[in-house]
Write a structure and sequence with these properties.
Structural class: alpha/beta
Number of domains: 5
Shape: elongated
Largest sheet: 7 strands, parallel
CATH architecture of the largest domain: 3-Layer(aba) Sandwich
Number of helices: 26
Number of strands: 30
Distance between the termini: 52 Å
CATH topology of the largest domain: Rossmann fold
Strand order of the largest sheet: 3-4-2-1-7-8-9
């Protein structure tokens, strides 16, 4: 690859690390080939006062070029780029943009900042890796990369020295792969080398049958049909999963889905597209805060005490909390005593659970204004948690916008950036649902790329360029939505009136057996029979339906209690209540029914049938005319409505009394506990505020110190190796050497000097002048003092008491150009010196 001009299509890998990350970075690059064509950007938490040694350290682990980033530097392949200390980093049009850190805006989150800009700049060519570290930096960055269909990886928590950052990323649902650092290079290379990874556009010509089979697997497991989502949007995400799973094509991926149940869950989450953040789109929220919401409150009648809003497709809750903050602030500014009720819904149950918990990473400090952050959030070691005042008005619930009933009497609906993924039929259904929910004049907020489509008669456009509409108050029934991939079996059962539990079942043999049995009974023994579920929805009927069943006027409903003869309705519901309570058996009673021929007695038998073969509980009811009621079985009691009603009232009163007594006792206990907890809570809140501010400072300092310490450990290891090399060199030369400090105290010596000067290990830090020596005819201290004072090297031939001759050399100890600190004394015997000269000759 040409390193001077990297193609825009090349992948860029951002590696984010903090405390404990140096070891993980080493393991990563030792396993990564140096000729992949990839560009690597390493973003760490660095101390602003520390000169980083990462360039030297990384150069030992890889043959790739390593550079500390400078302003305007271009991205190059087969190169590692390092963030400089005290800087924040972004990428724009393939060039690095540096800026000074601004700590007054909250905690420093350099990984989030760069990954977000990387996702915006290169889209699906971005690869994000989060390694060891504390806190949650990198979580929002990985979400941004995944939203743009890039690849996201987190270090396995068991291999990380500090698992805070990897854990936070995994908890957000933004991580595609969890691996050890050694395994990451292989997965990254296989991902980018996959044929789909080389395409500039999505594949075309994928058979509809292949997609339908994948959709059917998801619908079977999650009851959501993606066949009416825009094909390009869905296919991009399916192709991304194909790349990650290393499948050859769509058909191979379908087989992979069948063999790996966990992949179905991953694909389902991928297709839900949960892109969100606090106060996303500044212009929209500025208009809401300054104009739209105050006007909504102003239009409310004085008699209205509650304002109701619905945040549809709320994902992990950021949008819902943002809107709630604006409404709470506006209600306070208006001076009115209004209750706020917020319905925040999403089809993804896991997202709803995360939203209801209200826990978010530290990166939200970049999106939420500081005043609102301190007012509506509490900071802890995990990040930020919403306050009770912000959480209380919101009701989070799983809700299918297309299938489930809508909320009513809503003043404001927000549904941003969901309709862009729907085909026209789903968009139309959503608009009709919102119209039904909104009061006349209610406000609808859509995304910047969305519109009301064909339903222009239902909504009045706003006066500005933002996608804000008002309901005209025209009520219209929502049209049914037909799936593009309805199975023949499902259609047949739906036409026969089967309820959903049966149409979704794989094994219909049990229900068919019941139907055949019912038909046989009615043809021989009874006049009418019906199968129905616990919700009183009719499954199958047999016999004379015209006499006992009637369709009421109005909107069609599959409700047996409303369709059966009115004289049989109350006995039926009473029998069902008893059967549910007893969970077994049958109930038979005689009921007087007014017919065209006069008053006749009908024997009604109701029985609970336990479900089998994938079918839930089923009720069965038989009706049989009694020709001679005076000879009827005396053990079967005639139905007495008054007696049944009185018995039911007595049961309810007894149950109510027990519940009231239990509730009263519980309330008294809670009041006592609450008083104690309130006093304790006030003390803890005061202590917690002090600890939070201290903890934030300590956490930031700790991460920086850990990074500096890791670099120093690496440097110490290098120095230790150099010192060992020097020791071995000195000992191999057979030279007596003594090192003296600036005070002429002994600092270090070799074994050869022990005999000449009678030095022991305990003489370290002892003045050299106190030692006796075996040299003759020389004042060695004079030579040493002269060398130390004038920084000159002196060489003298000397003898010793044994008669051996030595070359004595006294040199100043140089620590820097022109700077000295002490003296080095070396002695080599003349015989060794002559031998060395002969060897060299």
């Amino acid at each position: 690859m040409n390193k001077t001009n990297m193609e825009r299509e090349s992948h860029i890998v951002c590696i984010g690390a903090s405390a404990g990350g140096l070891e993980a970075i080493e393991r990563f690059f030792k396993s990564m080939p140096s000729d992949t064509g990839l560009a690597f950007v390493v973003v760490q938490h660095l101390s602003p006062d520390h000169k980083s040694m990462m360039v030297d350290i990384l150069s030992k682990w890889t043959d790739m070029e390593v550079h500390q980033i400078r302003e305007g530097m271009k991205v190059q392949g087969d190169t590692i780029f390092l963030i400089p200390p005290s800087k924040s980093l972004k990428l724009f049009n393939g060039k690095f943009v540096l800026a000074e850190k601004q700590p007054q805006k909250g905690l420093s989150l350099p990984i989030d900042i760069f990954m977000t800009s990387l996702a915006e700049d290169v889209g699906p060519k971005a690869i994000g890796v989060v390694l060891s570290g504390t806190g949650s930096d990198g979580t929002n960055g990985l979400r941004a990369i995944k939203d743009q269909l890039g690849l996201t990886i987190a270090q396995d928590e068991y291999s990380a020295a500090f698992d805070g950052m990897p854990r936070s990323a995994m908890a957000s649902g933004a991580v595609d792969l969890v691996l050890t650092p050694e395994m990451m290079p292989e997965k990254i290379l296989s991902y980018i080398q996959h044929p789909l990874g080389q395409q500039r556009t999505i594949a075309t010509g994928v058979p509809q049958t292949s997609l339908s089979r994948i959709f059917s697997v998801i619908r079977e497991n999650h009851k959501v049909d993606f066949s009416l989502y825009k094909p390009t949007t869905v296919l991009r995400r399916i192709e991304r999963r194909i790349q990650i799973c290393q499948c050859e094509n769509v058909d191979a991926y379908y087989r992979y889905l069948l063999d790996h149940k966990s992949e179905t869950e991953l694909l389902y989450n991928e297709l839900l597209i949960g892109v969100t953040s606090f106060f996303r789109d500044e212009d929209v929220f500025k208009s809401l805060r300054n104009k739209v919401i105050p006007e909504i409150i102003e239009r409310l009648p004085e008699s209205q005490s509650e304002i109701r809003i619905w945040c549809a497709a709320c994902s992990s809750g950021e949008e819902a909390y943002s809107l709630t903050i604006l409404f709470l602030e506006a209600i306070k500014d208006s001076g009115r005593d209004l209750r706020l009720k917020v319905f925040a819904t999403d089809i993804d149950q896991k997202a709803v659970v995360r939203a209801s918990q209200g826990e978010y990473p530290e990166g939200i400090s970049q999106d939420v204004p500081e005043a609102l952050l301190s007012k509506y959030f509490h900071h802890d070691e995990k990040g930020y948690k919403v306050s009770g005042a912000l959480r209380e008005p919101i009701v989070f619930a799983q809700h299918n916008l297309i299938k489930d009933p809508p909320f009513t009497n809503i003043d404001f609906v927000s549904c941003r950036n969901l309709l862009i993924y729907f085909l026209a039929p789903l968009q139309k259904r959503a608009m009709q649902t919102f119209n039904f929910s909104l009061v006349t004049g209610g406000t609808l907020l859509l995304g910047n790329s969305e519109s009301i489509g064909e339903e222009i008669d239902l909504f009045e456009p706003g006066k500005n360029s933002l996608k804000i509409f008002q309901s005209r108050g025209i009520r219209r029934l929502a049209e049914p939505i037909l799936s593009m991939q309805k199975s023949d079996e499902g259609s047949r059962l739906a036409d026969r009136g089967h309820y959903a539990a049966l149409t979704d079942s794989h094994d219909l043999s049990y229900s068919r057996m019941l139907e055949k049995y019912l038909d046989a009974v009615t043809s021989s023994f009874v006049d009418f029979a019906v199968l129905f579920n616990p919700s009183l929805e009719i499954i199958h009927t047999s016999g004379d339906t015209g006499v006992f069943l009637r369709y009421p006027s109005g909107r069609a409903k599959n409700d047996l209690a409303k369709m059966i003869h009115k004289s049989l309705s109350i006995p039926l519901t009473t029998s069902i209540h008893r059967l549910k309570k007893e969970s077994h058996g049958r109930i038979t009673t005689d009921v007087q029914v007014q017919s065209q021929g006069g008053l006749e007695t009908i024997r009604m038998t109701t029985q609970l049938i336990e479900g089998k073969g994938g079918v839930g509980q089923i009720f069965c009811m038989w009706l049989q005319r009694q020709e001679n009621p005076e000879h009827a079985d005396t053990e079967i009691a005639a139905y007495d409505p008054n007696h049944a009603m009185l018995q039911r009232i007595a049961d309810l009163e007894q149950s109510l009394m027990l519940n009231q007594e239990t509730l009263q006792a519980t309330v008294e206990e809670l009041e006592t506990s609450n008083e104690e907890l309130q006093a304790t809570n006030e003390e803890l809140l005061a202590s917690n505020e002090e600890l939070q501010s201290t903890n934030e400072e300590l956490q930031s300092v700790n991460e920086e110190l850990f990074t500096v310490n890791a670099e120093y450990q690496e440097k110490i290891q290098d120095l230790t190796e150099s010192n060992n090399d020097l020791d071995n060199f000195i000992h191999s030369m057979d030279v007596a050497v003594i090192y003296l400090d600036e005070h002429l105290d002994i600092r270090r010596f070799t074994d050869q000097a022990r005999q000449m000067f009678n030095i022991r290990d305990s003489d370290i830090d002892r003045p050299f002048s106190e030692l006796a020596n075996k040299l003759r005819n020389i004042d060695i201290m004079s030579v040493i003092n002269e060398s130390n004072q004038y920084h000159r090297t002196t060489k003298v031939n000397v003898g010793c008491e044994e008669g051996n001759q030595y070359l004595l050399k006294v040199s100043p100890y140089n620590i820097a150009p022109g700077i000295y600190s002490g003296v080095v004394i070396s002695m080599m015997s003349k015989s060794s010196l002559l031998g060395f000269e002969v060897l060299c000759a």
